[in-house]
Amino acid sequence: xxxxxxxxxxxxxxxxxxxxxxxxxxxxxxxxxxxxxxxxxxxxxxxxxxxxxxxxxxxxxxxxxxxxxxxxxxxxxxxxxxxxxxxxxxxxxxxxxxxxxxxxxxxxxxxxxxxxxxxxxxxxxxxxxxxxxxxxxxxxxxxxxxxxxxxxxxxxxxxxxxxxxxxxxxxxxxxxx
Length: 177
Fold this sequence. Notes:
The chain is of the alpha+beta class. The chain folds into two domains: about 10-45; about 55-175. It is about 40% helix and about 20% strand. The strands form two sheets. Strands 1-5-2 form a three-stranded antiparallel beta sheet, covered by helices on one side.
């Protein structure tokens, strides 16, 4: 580019655009009709064959350490064994899955997930004193059970069985820790 020549500005010639639109106006409706026709043939009616039933329930775990504070024991001194992170791995094991499905007949898929722990920043101390900051869990962990099967027959009882196993596992982990 020659440094003496200024670069040209990009601009739109509205007269040319208007003349093309006047001559080729039919392109827009034809394109819309072709698109609508293709969408009609691609439509799947949002049905699956065979159909499936999915049940999802979320439970917030109890804070088993809270009663310790009533008798002047610091709940932070006690650590559950296995830890909450390991409890999820134990729940997902084949042994616990078989226990949850012992009296269940039929083919179903059940899954358990744990929510992420959220923390809150708390401050302590008087205005004249130095402030202390601490992080503490804002909520207890919640466990989500998801069950999928062909008919609505066994999912509710399978989730209840799994929930009882979770309660037992958490109680044993507190006693062990």
